[in-house]
Amino acid sequence: MGSDMTTSKGRVTIREVAERAGVSVATVSRVLSGNYPVPPATRTRVLRAARDLDYVANAHARALVGGGRKMVAVVLRQVTSPFYAQVAEGVEAEAAARGWLCLVGTTGGDPGRELEFVQLMREEGARLVILVGGVVEDDAYRERVARYAQALDASGARLVLCGRPAPDPGIPALVVEFDNEAGARAITGHLLSAGHRRIVFLGGLPGNTALDARVAGYRAALAEHGLPTDAAHVIDCGLGRAAGHRAMSELLKNTREFTAVFAGDDMVAAGALRAIADAGLRVPHDISVVGYNDIPLAEDFNPPLTTVRTPAEELGRAAVRIALRDPDHTAGTHHLLGTHIVVRDSVQPPPTDGGPTPV
Amino acid sequence: MGSDMTTSKGRVTIREVAERAGVSVATVSRVLSGNYPVPPATRTRVLRAARDLDYVANAHARALVGGGRKMVAVVLRQVTSPFYAQVAEGVEAEAAARGWLCLVGTTGGDPGRELEFVQLMREEGARLVILVGGVVEDDAYRERVARYAQALDASGARLVLCGRPAPDPGIPALVVEFDNEAGARAITGHLLSAGHRRIVFLGGLPGNTALDARVAGYRAALAEHGLPTDAAHVIDCGLGRAAGHRAMSELLKNTREFTAVFAGDDMVAAGALRAIADAGLRVPHDISVVGYNDIPLAEDFNPPLTTVRTPAEELGRAAVRIALRDPDHTAGTHHLLGTHIVVRDSVQPPPTDGGPTPV
DNA sequence: ATGAAAGCGCTAACAA
DNA sequence: TTGTTAGCGCTTTCAT
Predict the structure, then answer these.
(1) How far apart are CA A316 and CA B217, in angstroms?
(2) Residue B332's pLDDT band (boundaries 50, 70, 90)?
(3) Ordered domains of chain B (ranges, CATH)
(4) What is the DSSP letter of B203?
(5) pLDDT of A267 higher than 60
(6) What integer is the mean pLDDT of A25-50?
(7) At what angle do helices A25-33 and A14-21 cross, to 10 degrees?
(8) Partner A, chain B 32-51, Cβ-Cβ below 8 Å
(9) How high is the pLDDT of residue A113?
(10) Keyword annotations for this protein (chains A, B) (predicted)?
């Protein structure tokens, strides 16, 4: 590395490159931007100087004057959730393919941090902000999101809501999500077709739009099969493996008035499976279990889990694709992505004796 | 929202806030920065104006003149790998706790994209760049990393290598990793203690430093137990569930001269378990299996997987903690994090008849 | 207590 | 073909 003493304090600037190449900063800028005719001779000199000095342009200065780098920000609860991670990967992939930079922020489910992060993204000049995951939709939420949307829109950025509803169709935000109700109805139907009549929904999260929709689908399927309304049995234990485990253990301790479990998502299913095994029962022999999302390892559960496949990566891709395609912020546009059942080994007809039996 | 017509083109600037508050931009800056005495009266006026206009400072302009936001960048293969995701979460958490912004970039394993991303982070002015995950350590790698380190260092930034070696102790980079060899030796010892003598290592990746270290630990344990060198049987199928599944199927088709499998990581183990089950054999009755990393769902495999716990989130936290603590770029500093075995149900003594038997 | 003005590193007119 | 110059939005002396 041909190192001068020019590099004494911090980063190399365009001026130093210019000096070394014996040209003006304008020329260097032109060469580096590549959108302006420059004779090969000087071009080479400049390039050499830049390489020798290991120069990289200051993105902030660039952003200040010109467009700046296109940047998309994804905000999610946590990256360690397989489902969210896949969505993030989808966004990242689609963004990278277009030469956009992708920033991932996590909130741990705290609306305060979400707000903070969106603010931050406004400061950084993100052109596209994607909020991922279901939320409880109360007045505070509606107001908050309306503010995001307005503010982002005012500075020419776009807001996409992934798997959460728009607070109001008039707001400048795109919505992309799965048809949770349809998916839930389908998999409940699958259980019903196998002969189950007493199915508990494990993992309700009242107020959470995604879960509420699944519960709605579950109830709808029950109704379609002519079951009375009180056949529905929803346990609002929330999401996560631990919650599923705890709730299932509790449930098995009290009553066994059910032959199948519809878990709110695959992590809940994992916890439930473990709890069932701990109780000395077998899946699907004694109890059938289904999940939601088809995370990559659902196939490796014991037994392999029958679940609803929600193409998470595609959700992420779709979010950026749609946002970038659609030229005017077609307010209130709502995109629903389809899902389908993946049948594996966690469902079979209920035990004939009418209830689960100890092994 | 008290909206003026000031907001016509793009973002609200500090000047508009100044006008609305009837003060100079300097005063606004002082109020917003909060590091300068300002009389409460004007302070309130400015704050009100800023809120009315929904003003957010331009981070790029700020970065240009002063410190700019502290930013740490994590580079990894993919976020959908549970292990990497946890490392990223650790980095994110530790960074957020200090008010730093965290950027996640993925490379898909392509050194070219890694280089590109590091370059990008230099442009954006990241103060800390963390490269995560093992790599093949060839001359190209060494040269590339040396360049990163030098360049980053020249602009006052820091480089941390997580789970990959420093190309040369003189380079200004920190290394934080697990003691792969010790972990592998321990779990191999666990298998040997159970009575296994013919153990295959599934998931070698020659050149990959992390895997090579595990293979070394495996060999060391074998040697310690007085087994001949040729007792080692390493299958270089690489990582990932698919690879593990394929390689294991192949292996079962040909020979069964082994009673236990040491999978290079838990995803490989997942694939192997599936392949073994597909072949009509049972774990651990016919074959014992162990993994590496203890990903969150390892407990839900069939059977629950005995594996080596590598506290991934702690690795991420440690990376930023150490990098931020240590004031001079203590070149070549090497930090080793400990691991331990998590015993579950995938290991038992080998079948007494001397080999696996069909069910 | 507050304003005016000088840049931060870069790009894009405008000159030469 | 290349150089000069005026900002981009902000912070920070230096005056007032």
Answers:
(1) 40
(2) low
(3) 14-55 (1.10.260.40), 68-178+314-338 (3.40.50.2300), 180-311 (3.40.50.2300)
(4) -
(5) yes
(6) 92
(7) 100
(8) none
(9) 84
(10) DNA-binding, Transcription, Transcription regulation
